[in-house]
Amino acid sequence: MLRRQGAAKRCNPVLGHVTLVWADGDPQSWSAFSGSCLCTGTPVWFLNGIHQYTRLVAAKDFDTQDLDVSVVGRSFMITGANSGIGRATAVAVARKVGGTVHMVCRNKDRAEAAREVIVNESGNTEVYVHIVDMEETRQVWEFAEAFKQQHRTLNVLINNAGCMVHKRETNAEGLEKNFATNTMGEASLFSYRCGMLVQKLRADDLQSEKGFFDSVMVYAQNKRQQVVLTQHWAKANPVIHFSVMHPGWVDTPAVSKSMPQFHRMMGERLRRVEQGADTVVWLALSRAAARTQSGQFFQDRRCVPTHLPLAWTHSPAEDIQAFIIQLDALAAAIRSQPDAEPDAHTHPATPETL
């Protein structure tokens, strides 16, 4: 999550108080710890999750007054806002009088249906849909440029969209689809505007080209990349407040589809989507969150370590630097590609507003 600190004179005017939250309930952006350790038989991850991520422990220490704030005149952008944690976040934010919500979604029909639900539940008509495929980096750049031209400010950016593709596939730009959506797309959305925590960062294989392709392990790697990016951006952009969060284990259609065995095993212990969205909303709205150090990792409104005990997930500084350099190089390579023929239904240069 990104929030502006102090004056914004060093930041692109479209930013404002940007909130970068990496998480959601789609297969697509589920838990930062992902299911990888469950699949590999590591008991630390599962026992830690039972203790911290289930429905019973959600909200046990929350201060209800933290969200008693005004959002008049503030704007919020949420990627993947048509389902799961993304939609629950959009509903919670839209219920605050005076705020504007921008939903960034891939599917027009599902986005329209979700917007109708959000407006009906919140009573707020200032909810707008933008059709963008976060998997396609060029689309993300074009949308970001169009949004910057059409809107003077953006106060909070919530990077919630993501995916878990079970076979190794590449997008039109040659990027592996999980990496393109979960890391490159979200990174591009932020960087263009501003001028798995059980997995160690693999700077030598960002797009999972080496060895056997395990979608859950790849998803966990993407989550580790997101944490590293958040920490890097926090250092590089001191006037913006960045946060990354874990929603807990949440009962969403995406989790049911992508991890059916885990979903059946956990059953009623999984959190409701509103519980999964709570920390996202808290980071986006509360003054208490704004007072925390930028670049931190949150769970249930508390700052927590970014590495599990005995997980061996710490990366040396040179690996982190190599990751950032490779990400920049990939972005430069995509920019140098000839323009692809735009899809009339999803071209972001003229985002559809409902």
Automatic annotation (TrEMBL):
SUPFAM superfamilies, alphabetically?
NAD(P)-binding Rossmann-fold domains (SSF51735)
Which Pfam families does the record associate with it?
A: adh_short (PF00106)
Superkingdom of the source species: Eukaryota
Q: By its UniProt entry, which Gene3D superfamilies does this protein fall under?
A: NAD(P)-binding Rossmann-like Domain
PANTHER family, per this entry? Answer: DEHYDROGENASE/REDUCTASE SDR FAMILY MEMBER 12, DEHYDROGENASE_REDUCTASE SDR FAMILY MEMBER 12-LIKE
Protein name (record): Si:ch211-165b10.3
What is the protein's species of origin?
Takifugu rubripes
